[in-house]
Amino acid sequence: LDKSFMQCMLTIIGDYSKNIEKTVFNSSSLLYPKVLESLEQNPRWLNSSNKPLLIVKPFHESEIQAAILCSKEIGVQIRVRSGGHDYEGLSYLCKTPFIMIDLIEIRSIKINLVDETAWIQAGATLGELYYKISKASKVHGFPAGLCASVGIGGHISGGGFGTLLRKYGLAADHVVDAYLIDANGRILDRKSMGEDVFWAIRGGSASSFGVVLAWKIRLVKVPSIVTVFSVRTVEERAKKLFHRWQYIADKLHEDLFIRVVAQNDGSNSKQIIQAFFNSLFLGGKDKLIPIMNESFPELGLQAKDCIEMSWIQSVLYFAGYNNWDPPEFLLNRTTIYKSSFKAKSDYVKEPISETSLEGVWTMLLKEDTLALLIMDPYGGKMSEISESEIPFPHREGYLYNIQYMVKWEVNTIDESNKNLKWMEMVYRYMTPYVSKSPRAAYFNYRDLDLGSNKHDNNTSYSEASVWGSKYFKGNFRRLAKIKTKFDPQNFFRNEQSIPLLNI
Ligand code: FDA
């Protein structure tokens, strides 16, 4: 198969032979393991046997077009990888033979301050984008995720949120144009792909429709001074404050974002639960303190807890660096907390009682490796955007997103099974306290336990609705309708791609 693929590439791109060694790698190539593993952000999959037949690392869009056409010709699937952060490894793993297209070299960013937009190629990371914006302007930013190594390609195609979500919504809410390569190798922009497809790729899984080459985004305004704080609380106080936080976090001033990260200390010995209240405020601390005194006095925030800084320093701070580190640190493409993990997500619509929280607190204490609950508040701009504006539907009425995460360093099957079991137990326990019918989940926190497509390309719409309605609610049918028209052969498919309506 790999010979036929190479031959096809040579036929499509005449002078390709000069570049073939730099661009296409098979499993006997010395660079194959290096290229494959460089961006695998979850080492849990390192020993997987579901590896690509060939890796294509294009330097030019014509190589992506050719790779699509040649994969089709030899009858194998493709997987596209931008930043490699997929929670289930779907950008670089597949049970049937496949070609992986790695977009790491397709990553230019062009900022245009005149119309406050930017064109970003899909292989760029959030860190590269934030860095470039800060070099061009001190009063512009972009509302997307916290982790600098996340790829723009996957992130925007699943929604994308971070510290600016209460003020500005999702990354996908700010896309104004895109280049998409379809199953016939055509490069389409917003006009030529049409408004339906343009709607679908912004949060509705672009990998079901084609390969995104670049997004055009609208930048947002940020003040020259912002304030951050991180207040650590433990045990009973942590629980009481988290309980209280649920009543106010989505109703705070939209310039104020306070997330909660509750965690054990990941050890076998006597553990304690800590909850960190991490916050970004779009303004100075003289404005923040009175707001906090009025809306969340229980936290007891004081001026000494607050640090004023520029927006780009706050990006470093939330990405896990020090705010005094140089912004160039954001250009590092490796996740700084890289270890094997499993995560799941939920949405909460009614505050959970203290007694019920006690149960999940006890479960955190039982786990002997690092286990976290990450709570991101919604409200603000998120409640103003309709559920069907883009495919991401979790808007008004959702108090916060909760992400359960367990991480481990020893990559053995026993360790992995133990932690997966723990995760199942927590998820089962939380059932009565989270959204229902459907139990909503965030697409970018991909979770194959929710269900997956069959490998014979024969999954019906109703079978896929089991997981699809959780991610997309009522938008799932529209996504399937658009998919059926745009990619009727279902060439762009994976374990959780949008199904055809007519199966
Ligand atoms: P990756 O390359 O693995 O792609 C993910 C999916 O998108 C795959 O199905 C892939 O095929 C598809 N895809 C990628 N590029 C494509 C392209 N050009 N065209 C079409 N399809 C493409 N989320 C969040 O909202 N806020 C946050 O703060 C964080 N933080 C975070 C930290 C860490 C450490 C991880 C591992 C993940 C997050 N995430 C997150 C989740 C993240 O948004 C999600 O995993 C994204 O899909 C990652 O996009 P990548 O391009 O990096 O992944």
From TrEMBL:
Q: Which Gene3D superfamilies match?
A: 3.30.465.10, 3.40.462.20, Uridine Diphospho-n-acetylenolpyruvylglucosamine Reductase, domain 2
Task: Give an example GO molecular function.
Answer: FAD binding
UniProt lists the family membership as follows: Belongs to the oxygen-dependent FAD-linked oxidoreductase family.
Task: Pinpoint the FAD-binding PCMH-type domain residues.
Answer: 48-222
Q: Which InterPro entries match?
A: BBE, FAD-bd_PCMH, FAD-bd_PCMH-like_sf, FAD-bd_PCMH_sub1, FAD-bd_PCMH_sub2, Oxid_FAD_bind_N, Oxy_OxRdtase_FAD_BS
Please tell me whether the keyword Disulfide bond is annotated for this protein. no
> Mind telling me what this protein is named?
Berberine bridge enzyme-like 22
- According to its UniProt entry, this protein's organism is Cicer arietinum
Q: Report keywords, A-Z.
A: FAD, Flavoprotein, Glycoprotein, Oxidoreductase, Signal
